[in-house]
Amino acid sequence: MKMSAAALTVGSSLDRAKAGYKEGFEAIVRQHGGLVFSIGLHFFGSSALAEEIAQDIFLELHRNLHKIESEAHLTSWLRRSTANRCIDTSRKSSYRSEVPLSDTFHPATAGAYSDPLLQETLRKQVAALPEWQRAVVILRYQEDLDTEEISRLLNIPVNTVKSRLHRAMETLRGRLEHKKVVKI
Questions:
Q1: C-alpha span between 25 and 20 (Å, rounded)
Q2: DSSP 102
Q3: Mean pLDDT value across residues 114-125
Q4: 138 HSE (CA, 13 A, CB side)
């Protein structure tokens, strides 16, 4: 069923996809592909692995589309599924110790930093964090979610989110101060 691009609005893409329209699902992938890819890229620092995770997440979404209730639920589901998939992949394959940071890595907030060496050092240090700490740091500072939203996404208590963020920030501070790079 072919539809015009104008007929595929943000609010209707989910309904169209659930009704079986291929274009509806394609619109969802276009609208949310960057979010999924960005979480994977920040987690692993590998665009190839981020693409693989994004592909798996959207395949899983296609299989579970009937369970998605709204656009907000869709966004929440994608964030939670992506974060959990990153953690699972990291555990299964020991990617934590092998985090190559590509020269093609360009986060959406790259313009906000004036020191590219500091930015690179910080990315490396975040990539070296344990999976759960890395996930909450990415969801908090890349996705700009508050601790309550992260708690709901990862299905963990708010205090656990706070303690993981606190430990992650202490680890980052210690590593960066040790290198005499910056005080966070």
A1: 8
A2: P
A3: 78
A4: 35
